């Protein structure tokens, strides 16, 4: 029993509904991250914390135990408990700001969802071209768009001597599952930049994005201008790019005076991306669903759509028009050359690296020279055809 309120200590709750030890842990963590408690500072004793926060010593111990497990504090036998002395070890010797020589490891970590295929090699080339010119080495990690793997990657780089991080969030449409690890980066003053998405809880963190809403609008509006009336949309549900491209699709339909039909949208997730879109499309066609155009989340999905249509002996673009997104090698080299949206992969990577360098130097946002949003461009090829206006 916790004698402070007569209830079992494990269930002790504050007014917020959170357990008191968790509230205390969050308050102490906030003090550490904000710099009110600095590396090496000694924390008050358990008795002092118990008295000042009006909680039991057991509550204090549980809160401190979590902070110790997460690496924010460390206990020294006979001396007390201290804020972790691990500090950021500086910046690249080639960089200085405000007349100070900031020496660091010269290592930058880059975490992407994938490494070896599609648009990702060129994205990494853009990052590498900027960072190598500044004397940095890159530590590459990939998550496979898995939040569990993202956690492992973050844990691994926190054990390394790095000056900054560029990260593509995994399943960015879902709330971040690794806030404690990002808070550690903040605590150790390691700057990081998100690319191609960000988590809802971290929208104020530095990021470089494509205007995916505009991209989704451009391809859908193009089909509408060609006379299409029944346009199927295929989008990814667990990444923010999918949400934004869908938003652009809806905007184009609305502006044209077309009703939005949720039955004309196929949503897929990371785990079923290889099969769901094409399979659901086949089922829709077998059931007699009418469509004259298909807006695809990206070129990879468009390729699977083309295969599914070919199986059904449906011609592209004569029977159904198809658009992709990303202007990848798939769009240029398939049997049907895809109308798509240009993705300036190298430029996006270079911009992310330039923004990270600014953050390492301490350049304030109002003095930043790096563009944050990339504008999409429609690339017209062979996969779309004009429809009769009266159809």
TrEMBL record:
Residues of the HTH gntR-type domain: 18-86
Signal peptide, first to last residue: none
Domain of life: Bacteria
UniProt keyword Transcription regulation present: yes
SMART domains associated with the record: HTH_GNTR (SM00345)
Keywords: DNA-binding, Transcription, Transcription regulation
Protein name, as recorded: GntR family transcriptional regulator
The species this protein was found in: Hungatella hominis
């Amino acid at each position: 029993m916790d004698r402070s309120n007569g209830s079992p200590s494990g269930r002790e709750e504050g007014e917020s509904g959170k357990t008191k030890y968790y509230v205390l842990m969050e308050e102490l963590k906030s003090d550490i991250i904000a710099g009110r408690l600095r590396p090496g500072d000694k924390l008050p004793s358990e008795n002092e914390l118990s008295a000042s926060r009006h909680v039991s010593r057991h509550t204090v111990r549980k809160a401190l135990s979590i902070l110790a497990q997460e690496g924010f504090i460390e206990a020294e036998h006979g001396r007390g408990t201290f804020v972790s002395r691990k500090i950021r070890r500086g910046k690249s010797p080639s960089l200085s700001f405000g007349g100070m020589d900031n020496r660091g490891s010269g290592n930058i970590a880059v975490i992407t969802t994938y490494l070896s295929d599609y648009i990702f090699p060129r994205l990494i080339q853009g990052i590498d071209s900027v960072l190598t010119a500044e004397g940095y080495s890159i530590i590459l990690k990939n998550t496979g768009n898995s939040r569990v793997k993202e956690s492992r990657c973050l844990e691994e780089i926190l054990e390394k001597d790095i000056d900054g991080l560029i990260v593509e969030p995994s399943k960015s449409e879902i709330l971040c599952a690794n806030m404690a690890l990002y808070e550690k980066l903040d605590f150790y003053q390691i700057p990081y930049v998100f690319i191609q998405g960000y988590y809802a809880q971290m929208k104020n963190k530095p990021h470089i994005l494509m205007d995916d809403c505009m991209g989704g609008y451009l391809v859908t509006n193009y089909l509408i201008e060609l006379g299409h009336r029944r346009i199927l949309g295929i989008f990814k549900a667990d990444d923010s790019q999918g949400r934004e491209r869908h938003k652009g699709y809806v905007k184009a339909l609305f502006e044209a005076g077309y009703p939005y039909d949720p039955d004309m949208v196929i949503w897929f997730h990371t785990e079923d991306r290889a099969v769901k879109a094409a399979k659901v499309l086949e089922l829709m066609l077998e059931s007699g669903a009418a469509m004259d155009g298909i807006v695809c989340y990206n070129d990879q999905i468009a390729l699977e759509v083309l295969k599914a249509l070919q199986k059904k002996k449906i011609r592209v673009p004569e029977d159904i028009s198809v658009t992709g997104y990303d202007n990848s090698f798939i769009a240029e080299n398939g049997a049907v050359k895809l109308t798509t949206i240009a993705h300036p992969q190298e430029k996006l990577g270079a911009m992310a690296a330039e923004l990270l360098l600014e953050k390492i130097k301490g350049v304030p946002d109002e003095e930043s020279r790096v563009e944050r949003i990339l504008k999409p461009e429609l690339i017209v090829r062979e996969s779309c055809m004009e429809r009769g206006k009266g159809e």
